Amino acid sequence: MTAAVREEPFIRFRDVEKSFSTKNGTVTAVERLSLDIAEGEFLAIVGPSGCGKSTLLMALAGLTQPTSGSIDVGDERVDGPMTTAGIVFQSAELLSWRTALENILLQAEIRKLDKNAYRERALQLLADVGLEGFADHYPDELSGGMQQRVALCRALLHEPSMVLMDEPLGALDAITRDQVQLDLQHLWLTVRSTVVLITHSIEEAVFLADRVVVLSPRPASIAADLTIDLPRPRHIADRGSEEFRGHVNAIREEFSRLGVFGDDE
Amino acid sequence: MTSEQTVTAPSTARPTTTRDGVIQAKLAGAARRWLPSTTLLVLLVGAWQIASSTGLVEEYVLPAPFTIVESMVVDASRYWEASVPTLWAIVLGFVLSVLVAVPIAIGMVYSPLFERVLYPLLVLSQVVPKVAIAPLFIIWFGFGDPPKILMVVLISFFPLVIDAAVGFHAARPESLMLVRSMGASRWQAFWKIRFPWALPSIFAGAKVAITLAVVGAVVAEFVGADRGLGVLITQARGNLDTVTVFAGIGYLSALGLVLFAIIGLLERLLVRGSRSGRSFEAAGGL
After folding, report:
1. Where does the ABC transporter domain lie (chain A) (predicted)?
2. Is B176 part of the contact surface with chain A (CB cutoff 8 Å)?
């Protein structure tokens, strides 16, 4: 990635709309949404569950087509699977018949990259997330947090220009979640690729992201767009700070305004 | 487990006892597992032996177990000679069955139209009683191996098709999305995701199929063939030679067991990553 000065932002959503036809008629998941994401930016998208966050991410990954509107990444129009991306799903999606290392190297295998060259990198990534010594373990032998860290390594193996994460920590317990957030920040500070993180945790969004976009309930549209200018690396203890709480409260108020919390008199 | 076995015992006393302890624990485990069923088997065979040898049951109705085993050992070459054509029909038919069933299952997964067209026919082919159409095979193909092999294929391919199709359908959509985002071709998605996902299922089908294959071969030989264990049994039955009938059944069962064990061994070699071990423990007997 050369840091060429671009006229336009790296990722551009233009009037993106996505609707599904169901038995009970058409459901609009995303409504005329436009969004720019700069290169190297860590963007978090938060929104109430079922608001179409994942649909948005899958559309960016090229795994589902928007009903109308367009998405561009760099000079490329998204009209098929974006192979320049690295994706992490909510469940780790490791293949049970492959060891941790083999799961990471799937990325190189499918792309027909030199496996031996990437083996080194895979082992380095594992070490970066504190999993040295677990390369030859099968997923069954790893905890949920470990599995998700392996999935993260897999998503980063080919040095993707953008990393798309769909609630990657949603299934983890609070303590593991903190740890993986730190690992994620550590990795991102070394890689600095563009990240789009979908999450339903406001704290997680504020802790990790440069910018947080708040989506409205379905059909999704942008309700707020906040810059998080906290210095990095951020620490777990920073979450008690006034600034941190301020950002979290601002987003929570936004949710209240949207009527997400139904019975909060 | 294996690492403990491969450790060479040093001269010091403690590790040696640990190693012996491991072996003892394994023996104890095996005893616990096999003792109840073995005891029951020994009791049953013992009762049978007594019933036959004391004349409680006529020897030609139910020969004593020792007489049967004696015949199996003494006349081993005769039984083995009869086993070879049967074994040949089973193995060839089973392999053909796999070669037919797996591609059909793949076709059904990738083409809903193909599935809609073929599925009713598959079910129909199974509800037709095979024993009833066996004589037709002899009219069409004579008394040689082809009708036997055809019968084996017909009887064993159904569980293979069904289980393989279930397996190929089982791949998680997220796994497929993941490799699509890596730019995988259809071919890669199949070999890296769908096929390994389907393997345990295919083996489940293969285990059912191999036992049915034995049945298929014997049914075909009963109806009419020139050689094989089924032929030997039919002829012996005609002569009221129940010892040979029982010994033949013994050989057939042994064939089935060995073939089943081979499939199990292949499964353990090819299906990696424990997928069932933990769930058993997690179930806690539920």
Report:
1. 11-242
2. no
